[in-house]
Amino acid sequence: MRNKPSPNGVALGLLSPRDWVRATKKSGHWYKVTTNTKTTSGLKEGTSGWVRSRHLKPETCMQIN
After folding, report:
1. Do 44 and 1 contact (CB within 8 A), yes or no?
2. Tens of pLDDT along 8-48?
């Protein structure tokens, strides 16, 4: 996860395949994401940053009230 949509952006931390994030914006091949929970590498819940699309796997989640 980086602070801007570029490989030159400052690294904020790592995401693992088990971490869940919410994508909120797209810029080229990059998505702005926010962590849903504390990540396995220790990023706090609610941390936002940019991730290259090839490192993300889309999932569908549904909430039923």
Report:
1. no
2. 999 999 999 889 899 999 999 999 999 999 999 999 999 99
**pTM of the complete model:** 0.85
Contact assessment for residue 47 and residue 23, using Cβ atoms and an 8 Å cutoff: no
Sorted by where each begins, the domain ranges of the chain are 1-65
Local structure of 13: helix, strand or coil: coil
Torsion of CA 40, 48, 52, 4, to 10 degrees: -130
**What's the rounded Cα separation, in Å, for the pair 65 and 44?**
27
Task: Give 37-41's long-range contacts (Cβ < 8 A, gap of 24+).
Answer: 39/13, 39/14, 39/15, 40/16, 41/13, 41/14, 41/15, 41/16
